[in-house]
Design brief:
This protein is α/β, with parallel strands linked by helices and about 190 residues long. Helix content is about 30%, strand content about 25%. Strand 3 and strand 4 form a beta hairpin.
Length: about 190
Amino acid sequence: GMKLILASRSPRRRGLLRNAGFEFAVRASRIEEVPQAGETPARFACRLAREKAHDVARKSAPGTLVLGADTVVTLGGEILGKPTGRSDAERMLRALSGRTHRVMTGVCLIEAPGRELAWTHETTRVTFRTLDEREIREYARSKEPYDKAGAYAIQGRASCFVTRIEGCYSNVVGLPLARVYEILKPYLAPSPG
């Protein structure tokens, strides 16, 4: 079978892919995660996934499969990226409190050095209960919010904030596994056991 590379430094994406039975190497891309003027959240996530995959595929052995992904949190059209510090994390959590937001992950699969095999995205709607100031401050003081879009980890302490989820749960963690499996299935079989 073909070798798979995950073009991401996210430990959550690594864990999800490993738990789904895939064998892969990890090679992070050096792509700047900055939205372009007027770019929609879905387009931004898809563009970054594609750029990350291409960046790693260019430096990989021909025939290697490279999976790129990028997750964005969006609320009322605003992209909530990774918080820059504690006050930014608190600002995002206040904005998400008592409201429904969308989590979008763009996914791109490339056969090195540059043949695009699949390019798609998944959207999940997540609703937070109303958070009080103490909860917001305590959560922002933890390590959890800082390398995550939207300043929270649904699989961590912020699981207590979520009252409703519509769509793919693993997408909110960072990789829509059912969609990724469909994309990879023609090229790779997960290892048994």
